[in-house]
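Running this now, will post back.
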Amino acid sequence: MNIAKNEWELDRFWRIILSEILLILGFFWFGGSVQIILYVFSFILFMTGILGFCGIYTLLGINSCRKDAKISRISWIVFILAFLLIGAIGSYASIFFTNKFFLEDYNRMNNYYKQTLFNTGKELRPESISNYDSLISEYEIFFAKYTKYHPYALKWDANLNTDLNNISSMIVLLKDKIYTGELKQAHLDLEKVRPIFQDILKRNNFSLLAVYLVDFHDVMEKVIEAADAKNAKWVIESYVEADEKLKAVEEVVNDSEIQAIRKNLDTVKSLAEQNNMETIAETAANLKSSFVKVYLKRG
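Update: finished.
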């Protein structure tokens, strides 16, 4: 059955281009009901553009067809090029910026997590409460956004919402401990959140300095614990893994602050090899201090 066309070619071109734009917006930038609405309008515009028939035009008595005007070959080429460019540039830009905005949201929220972790570890109660309250507020915003909408890099992460729900429960349950001053236990419980964040970033291929710093932190603590126990053999054994993790950090960035971490780590190992236990605990403390300085600023 032939459908009587009531759209001029340029009308049809713009419908297909707009359909493509709505599809890109829906796929990369939105989730939930807004995404569905964008997909529906994209489909309608695309089909009316392909068929050359618009039902609303029929209801309103509109017909944009122009029998006296023909579309040149150049116009067709321009349309095809525009369609391809919008698809390529729009997709690339959307991937780049949605990832960028996700990382900015993550880092803003994660900054309060790091500060709360740091302050509970130092048993600074007022600071712990203040940063914990900010963490709760920022995480609620982060949670509400990214359980409904997944940017391209996380679009097929089936475990994301489960992980975000688990983190939410873990953070909320810390309130009584932080407010009543059980900061040591709150610190230990808060430490359990970090590997979940880390796994989300790793499995979605975010090459963040923070990911490598966190990887290094876990093995660095083994080195420090061995140094505090003045166990030279344990220090040397723990150093092997810490060295590999720090190399991953150095591949991303290796400025003076990272070099300070490297110097302290290698000094701890050197002291253990010399069986010089007199200053090894102090050097291990310097190692942790140099790491915390970098992590709080850039992790």
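The CA atoms of residues 205 and 261 lie 25 Å apart. More later if anyone needs it.
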